[in-house]
Design brief:
The complex is a heterodimer. By secondary structure, chain A is α/β, with parallel strands linked by helices. Chain A contains 19 helices and 17 strands. Helix content of chain A is 35%, strand content 13%. In chain A, a hairpin with a 6-residue loop joins strand 3 and strand 4. The longest helix of chain A is centred in the middle third of the chain and has 21 residues. The relative contact order of chain A is 0.12. Chain B is an alpha/beta fold. Chain B is 44% helix and 12% strand. In chain B, the strands form two sheets. In chain B, strands 6-5-9-7-8 form a five-stranded mixed β-sheet. Chain B has a four-stranded parallel β-sheet with strand order 3-2-1-4, sandwiched between helices. In chain B, a hairpin with a 5-residue loop joins strand 5 and strand 6. The longest helix of chain B has 18 residues. Classes of the chains: A alpha/beta, B alpha/beta. Chains A and B meet through helix 2 of A and helix 13, helix 14 and helix 15 of B.
Chain lengths: 573, 421
């Protein structure tokens, strides 16, 4: 174990540890900017420089391994001055109109500048303003705020294996951009939004939908419905000052009512519905030697990815709409009819952990009347937190409320949709029990839980062995999809989620989401499931009532019209 | 005569396009000799020679060679850095265009000693003639069973390919160069790990300068100890000097370490033009320090050079006479680095432009004392915190002139318009 000294304190560091890791393990704070827990060490920003006794230059603590006898001075005058000057240089080439930025008071650069005591910049402003990319429904890129930390490039390349973003140009003119300076809408971006979640500043963000939502809320002629995705209830609290992993379902309902939504529904209800539809699809395909494996379709990032990268596998993907879109379709058909409201007067809002959901809602096929989208606006977790703050709601002290009917009845199977492996487990619970015709002995399918990039298990249903797999992140999805393409895939059913950890780690989740945090949220999600009275989708009486009162048979004609969709080969466009 | 021709001894006597000429003059004999030696003995000779890398950083060559030899990961690569982009340097081109086989022979010896099977020569994109000459040399060597499988009927295989640069200065930096060979844009990598453990395509790689490889056959020929007797204790052997600027006889000269610069300038370079005086000298190239005339008695020596905040072993001497404005020169140097910065790390990406802006104020006589202090901060921070050699050495000219020509800065502030002062 290397013995080192940090700021004159003797420390036993771990072998192979970096200076930064050793310092943090012993409660020394070294500021960083380009560093991000799950991503590569880049040492680009040079903020974390420290002085080593006996060395002329400064070294970056994020990339320098500790060595026995090392004497580190984190805040020597040289290190501190350098850190300050580097920060000033960044600020001199940054649109620092902080009060007009989505990251105001939640910005890593702002915090750094504040902690270094920068009150004025010695360096001349050299920012050359460039146009903002607002070409797509999900993500806005404002390069004027970009500090070239390369986190977004890394996440797009290493986590998603897509590499839509990279550095273009060199020197002072370097820019993070799609190839040939195209806009995101014109390249193959899946809109997963992981880039926006890791951006330390306001250079990449979701396209703001709070304004149209406020407009709808304040429009007395509109019936404004809101649905809340499974992953929101374990993450929103973090953005509102609550501990990591807090389950805040009832408070979200209360807050949404206070914001002025007419009805607050639970996407978990349509998640249960998804399981019924997708479960029947799987049963049908298994029976009549249909095309297998069946691949889940809840994740719009994955869908767009498949449409571009694996158009030959589109027939493998379940035709079920995602729970968000099932909700939208039902809101503008079933709900409109039941409440006798013109669908044109219904405004549907979703709260999603996801930026790709904004894109999904605007897909032309996601419209019953061919004009208006079934889901009118999609807000990310972060945007909802912003609205709650805008209204000055004391979130922590809200009295919990229940979702509106019929969505107050949901199952644990729907709750776990938010975690990687959740859709698979929910489907297995239903498919196995329905096919075998007797109650499951064990509800937990432990093998599909966890955080491994690809997990597989075997399930025996009516004596027949079924191989299934779960993949999260698009890099892992690619591996499975390539196997399927090659015809070597042994699986009957595959779940794919584009984001690390599934929706709990979605691109619209609170800033600073890491695998560690995603795991915490997953833990909370399984607790929600464990405490539910109903834990299987087909045990949800409200869903089954919907079939008997309105939809008819699962997989039936009306169900198909409302709840299923198709995909487009985007490879050659 | 202060010249000592060891690595350039065949130049001018053989046709660089004729492998037969090279072989007749004893070429590839040292490869044969090496193939007959135990690998450890070869390392031993290099260690005794105390040869240091000729690309500029002056890293002990034997250490790198041994590190690569001890790596177990395969394949291992040998990379010859021929991206001679440093302004004022032209000795690698001189070697490539006048004696290409000696470079190949050096690479072959390194490959044999370390167990590498594949080599690349990364040649600066503008060096068309060098590229042609080296290509022909490789083809000829392949025909003579000196490159390729079972070299000289031994079990030793080694192939060499050429890669062309595309005009980027930073690709001369070892990691940016490796990235470029891999087909990526030329931006440096985080270090550690260093190339000998994780280099080209993630594999162990020895990367050395053209001149370094050209020295290998010389060391095998005369032995490490004899080589170490030439030069000074800290800097053994000879060095190619690219002499340029306001000087009569511009060119490449091979001298032993320990020769005073004044002798090189006066005896080999023939001094400055009629009626002119030397104002300053820039050592090593655009990235090197600018020193005053009175320091010319300093000898060429790694340790001596390291006293400047720069490593200047590439061996350029650029003489500037009294006709030029120091700030105009500094501005040009700064423009060069602003253009060539890869943009990856903050201090280099942002710092170069700020430094250039400040220098322009000195050129235009708009400078204040505040600008002087700002320039010092900019230069110091870039030097101390940049990721690669480009950013670390881009401010060397400024740092050195702030030291040796401070009066020039103060005078310029005096001359500046009163409003800015």
């Amino acid at each position: 174990m290397p013995k080192i000294k940090i700021n004159n304190m003797e420390i036993n560091a771990e072998t192979n540890e970096t200076i930064l890791e050793a310092a943090r393990a012993h409660n020394f704070n070294i500021p960083t900017l380009c560093h991000y827990p799950d991503l590569d060490i880049k040492s680009d920003c040079r903020i974390c420089v420290v002085e080593l006794t006996g060395q002329k230059g400064l070294v970056t603590s994020c990339s320098t391994p500790v060595k026995d006898g090392m004497e580190i001075k984190i805040n020597s005058p040289r290190a501190l001055n350098a850190r300050k000057a580097i920060t000033e240089m960044i600020l001199a080439n940054h649109d620092a109109n902080c009060t007009a930025c989505v990251r105001n008071m939640n910005c890593e650069l702002q915090r750094l500048s504040e902690s270094l005591g920068i009150t004025k910049n010695r360096f001349e402003n050299v920012l050359e303003e460039k146009a903002t990319d607002e070409s797509n429904p999900s993500i806005v890129r404002n390069t004027n705020r970009c500090i070239k930390c390369a986190r977004c490039i890394d996440v797009c390349k290493k986590v998603q294996d897509i590499s839509v973003l990279d550095f273009v140009g060199r020197g002072q003119e370097i820019e993070v951009s799609p190839a040939f300076n195209k806009q995101l809408a014109d390249v193959f971006c899946t809109f997963c939004g992981q880039c926006s979640a890791v951006c330390p500043v306001g250079a990449i963000m979701e396209k703001d939908a709070t304004e149209p939502v406020w407009d709808a809320i304040h429009n007395p002629d509109k019936e404004v419905l809101v649905q809340v995705a499974p992953a929101i209830r374990v993450s929103l609290g973090e953005d509102l000052g609550l501990p990591l992993g807090s389950v805040v379902t009832g408070k979200i309902v209360a807050a949404l009512k206070m914001l002025g939504f007419n009805k607050v529904f639970d996407t978990n209800f349509t998640a249960d519905l998804t399981i019924i539809e997708e479960g029947h699809e799987l049963i049908n395909r298994m029976g009549e030697s249909g095309r297998l494996p069946l691949i889940t379709s809840c994740c719009p990032g994955w869908i767009r990815y498949a449409e571009h990268e694996f158009p030959d596998l589109l027939d493998n993907i379940s035709s079920c709409k995602s729970p968000q879109q099932m909700f939208g379709a039902l809101a503008k058909s079933y709900y409109a009819k039941r409440e006798a409201i013109d669908p044109k007067d219904i405004y549907v809002v979703s709260i999603m952990p996801c930026t790709a959901k904004k894109y999904e809602a605007q897909r032309p096929e996601m419209s019953l009347n061919g004009e208006d989208p079934d889901v009118d606006a999609v807000l990310t977790t972060r945007e909802l937190a912003k609205m709650i703050k805008q209204m000055g709601i004391d979130f922590d002290n809200l009295r919990e409320q229940k979702f509106d009917k019929p969505d107050e009845v949901t199952s644990g199977a729907a709750a776990i949709f938010g975690a990687t492996g959740g859709v698979m487990e929910a489907a297995l619970r239903s498919v196995k029990e329905i096919l075998e015709g007797r109650p499951l002995e064990k509800l937990d399918f432990d093998k599909v839980r966890g955080y491994e990039g690809i997990r597989e298990t075997e399930v025996t249903i009516k004596g027949e062995m079924l191989k299934v797999a779960v993949a999260h992140t698009l890099a892992n999805a690619r591996k499975i999809a390539e196997e399927i393409r090659a015809g070597t895939s042994p699986y009957a059913f595959v779940e794919v989620m584009a984001c690390p950890g599934g929706c709990v780690g979605g691109g619209g989740q609170p800033y600073g989401t890491t695998s560690e945090k995603a795991r915490e949220r997953i833990h909370s999600i399984y607790q929600v499931d464990r405490l539910m009275k109903i834990r299987k989708s087909h045990d949800n009486a409200a869903v089954m009532n919907l079939y008997s009162n309105y939809l008819g048979e699962p997989s039936g004609d009306l169900a198909h019209e409302l709840l299923h969709t198709g995909y487009t080969n985007r490879r050659d466009t | 005569m202060i010249e000592k021709k060891m690595i350039t001894k065949h130049i001018g006597k053989i046709d660089p396009h004729s492998i037969e000429d090279y072989i007749k003059s004893g070429g590839y004999k040292m490869l044969e000799k090496a193939l007959g030696m135990k690998r450890l003995d070869i390392h031993d000779e290099f260690e005794k020679s105390y040869l240091r890398g000729r690309g500029g950083a002056g890293f002990p060559v034997a250490v790198k060679l041994m590190a690569l030899a001890q790596e177990t990961a395969k394949p291992k690569y040998i990379v010859c850095n021929a991206d001679e982009g440093e302004p004022g340097n032209f000795k690698d081109r001189y070697l490539m265009e006048n004696n290409p086989h000696q470079i190949l022979e050096g690479m072959l010896i390194a490959a044999y000693a370390t167990g590498a099977k594949k080599g690349y020569i990364y040649i600066r994109g503008e060096f068309e003639q060098s590229m042609k000459t080296m290509k022909k040399a490789i083809c000829d060597a392949r025909k003579h069973n000196l490159v390729g499988p079972n070299i000289k009927e031994s079990p030793f295989d080694f192939d060499i390919e050429i890669r062309s640069g595309a005009g980027s200065y930073v690709c001369g930096e070892e990691f940016a160069l490796l990235e470029s060979i891999e087909g990526k844009s030329g931006r440096t990598r985080v270090k550690p790990p260093f190339p000998t453990s994780v280099g080209l395509f993630g594999k162990p790689t020895l990367i050395n300068n053209v001149e370094t490889f050209a020295t290998f056959p010389v060391i095998i020929d005369m032995g490490g100890e004899a080589y170490a007797n030439i030069g000074t204790p800290s800097s053994t052997g000879t060095k190619l000097i690219s002499l340029s600027g306001n000087i009569r006889n511009k060119g490449v000269y091979e001298v032993p370490f320990g020769v005073p610069m004044r002798k090189i300038i006066e005896e080999l370079g023939g001094g400055v033009g009629e009626g002119r005086k030397i104002q300053m000298i820039q050592l090593g190239g655009a990235c090197g320090p600018v020193i005053p005339e009175y320091m010319l008695d300093m000898v060429i020596d790694y340790e001596r050079f390291e006293e400047f905040e720069s490593k200047t072993g590439a061996g350029a001497i650029i003489v500037i006479d009294d006709r030029y404005d120091m700030f105009d020169i500094l501005k040009r140097v700064s423009e060069f680095f602003t253009h060539e910065s890869c943009g990856k790390c903050t201090p280099c990406r942002e710092g170069n432009l700020h430094m250039l802006k400040t220098l322009r104020k000195f050129v235009d006589k708009r400078a204040s004392e505040k600008d002087l202090s700002l320039l010092e901060t900019q230069a110091r921070v870039m030097h101390q915190t940049s990721l690669c050699g480009l950013g670390q050495t881009a401010p060397t000219a400024v740092i050195s002139t702030l030291h040796y020509f401070r009066f020039g800065y103060l005078n310029r502030i005096e001359e500046s318009t009163p409003e800015v002062r």
